[in-house]
Each structure stands twice: as C-alpha cells, then as structure tokens.
Amino acid sequence: MASGEHSDGRRPLMNMSGRDMVILIMSVLLASGIWLLHNLSQKYSQTVSLPVSAVSNIEGHSPNSANTAVVQARCRSTGFQIMRLNRYVSEKSITVEFNPSDMHPMGDDNYYITSSELVAYVPSLFGSESTLEGFLTDTLVFRFPKENSRKVPVLPSYRISFDSQYTSTSELEVFPDSVVVYGEPYLIDNITRVSTEPFTLSDLKHSVRGDVRLEKIKGVRFSQDKVDYEVGVARFVEIRADIPVLGRNVPSDRMLIIYPSTATVSFRCAFPVTVDPEVTTRLYIDYNDFSNSLSGKCIPTVQGVPSEVFGYKVEPEVFDCVESMR
After folding, report:
1. What are the start-end ranges of the H helices in 253-316?
2. Measured over all CA atoms, what is the biggest interatomic distance in the chain, rounded to whole angstroms?
3. How far apart are CA 254 and CA 256, in angstroms?
4. What would the mean pLDDT of 200-204 be, rounded to a whole number?
C-alpha cells in the first residue's frame, strides 16, 4: 500500500487548522473587495432614468414644482455613480435648481425645459464625474402652482417666569413683528397670524435676547423661518399705597358716590427706588362710563404712574357707583 493512503485506497482530507481557514476566508474577501472597487471605479456607458424635482424662482408661483419629471439620458460614468443614480429611481427624486429663464410657460401653471437647455444642468443631474452622451428625453414639464402672499403678524408662544424680586420691564417683543406668507390662495386666505414654536424662559433676573423658529404650516412658506425676541428684566421693589378714587366729568347738579372710596395700589418700582408713585398717581371714574353701565359697577382709570414703575395692581378692581342730586 502506498504511503499516505488509507487501507481502502482513499486519500486523507487536507489537514487545515482553524487559523489557516480564517486566513483563507479573509484573503478571498480582500481579493473580492479589490476586484469590486476596481470594477466600480471604471467608467461605463449606460442609459439612466432619473426622477427630477424642480426648484425655480418664477414670479407669482411656488418655488418648488408640484410634480417630478423623469429625464432619460445615456451617460458615461463610474460604477459608483451609476449605482447612486439607480438608487434615486427606487428611493427618491433628485432636486435641481433651474434658472427661471430656462422655464417656458405652457399654460395651467405648467413650464417646460428642453434637452438643449438641460445640457447646462448635467453636473447637477448626473454628477460632475459623468459625461453626457445624449438625452433620450426631449422635454421635461413641471407644474409650479400659483402663489399668493400676504403680510401677517407674528404671535410669540412662550412661558416666562422670574427669579424672586425680578420682573419684566415690558412685554416680550419679536423682531420683525410680522412676516410675509406665501402659498396657494386656498391655503393662505384664512391665515391671519403665524406663531413661533413654543419656548420657555425660566427664573430670569436679567434681560434676555434670542431667536426662535416659526411654526411650520403645511404648504405655506414664510419670508423668513425664524424671528428674534427680547424681553427686558430688572429688579423691583413693591410699594403699596391707598389712593382715593374720584369722579370726573360729573354734572354740576349731580354727585357720584363711589364705594369703596379708596383703592389699594401695589406698585412694582425699579430698584433702587427714586420716585414715590403715590405722589403723582390718580384714580378716577368717568361719569360717562358710569352712565353707560347697566349695573353701576365701574373700573377706574389710572393716570400719572411714573415711568420707573414696571407694573401695578389695583384692589379692588371694580367699584360700585351711585349718583344722587345735589
């Protein structure tokens, strides 16, 4: 019997260790990877069908087309690029910005661009490494819906709180306080204002500035996507004072009796206090307001509050009034 054979004449299996098997598999994978990279880096000539969404600044129309159009062309490009272009066919469209002068009207908000003009957009369509051999599509047609526009105010949506003994010196303001909205007429006709995204300012003890995005409205675009906001904050001292409530414009033959005859006013004054608000502040009820009331209950008018006062509260808020003859 020959050396190295079994008694039944069979040869033994190759004696390969686990380490050798791993090396063999990695070698095969590496060789396959090198082969694949080499082939994908080569240039090939292939027909490509590509769905395209258009962007164009056509006056009075939406900048984005409402449809996609398929462009077909024969291109010479790398295997990598051809794979990328084929992925668009199954997953999504490619967005290309076209010069408005290349878009020709054809009625019903439809615009077309010819293959002779598409040549300038080959890098945007097929990539800078692609060479066009020829378009198979003669014309692409896009629909750009008509757009209206209107200017509407911006309403900030926020929650605010202050640290102890601090308050706002004015209402929170946004800049700009209005924006232009664009969209199809049926979308924007009922839009009277736009809101910011909700935001929170907590435990403030100094003035704050920032910016916040506007809440999106489907199918509508804004002249800008965000606005700046600002709120002044300062330390205050509360001063309480009892101030008489007087009648005004009362006819000479009448008397206006007000109950209670005084109001407690809580003033929030800038710290440190430089003025006494009790000296200049006056509360009164106009006789004409009383005459127009059905119940005789009136809210007093407050005048003469110094500019150093950030805010005030009058208690009670409503007063009972009765008239009598002199």
Report:
1. 277-280, 287-292
2. 148
3. 7
4. 95
Does residue 66 contact residue 143 with C-beta atoms inside 8 Å?
A: yes
d(CA 188, CA 223) in angstroms, rounded, equals: 14
Cβ pair 282, 241 in contact under 8 A: no
Q: Which pLDDT value is given to residue 277?
A: 93
Give the pLDDT confidence score for residue 286 in this predicted structure.
93
Cβ neighbours around 97 below 10 Å, total: 11
Give the contacts of 163 (CB within 8 A, at least 6 positions apart). 203, 204, 205
- Tell me the three state secondary structure of residue 152: strand
Q: How far apart are CA 291 and CA 106, in angstroms?
A: 68
Q: What is the DSSP letter of 127?
A: -
Residue 243 to residue 263: CA distance in whole angstroms: 5
Question: Which of 13-22, 72-81, 88-97 has the least mean pLDDT?
Answer: 13-22
Tally the residues of the chain. Answer: 326
The mean per-residue pLDDT over the stretch 153-175 comes to: 93
Q: What is the pLDDT of residues 190-201, one digit of tens each?
A: 899 999 999 999
Which domains can be identified in the chain, with CATH numbers?
41-143 (no CATH), 148-231 (2.170.120.40), 238-325 (2.170.120.30)
Nearest to 310 by CA among 237, 241, 229: 237
Bond preceding residue 306 cis, omega within 30 of 0: no
Q: What is this structure's pTM? A: 0.60
What is the percent of the chain with per-residue pLDDT over 70, rounded to a whole number?
82
- Residue 125, Cβ density class (10 Å: 0-12 exposed, 13-18 middle, ≥19 buried): buried
Q: What is the pLDDT at residue 7?
A: 52
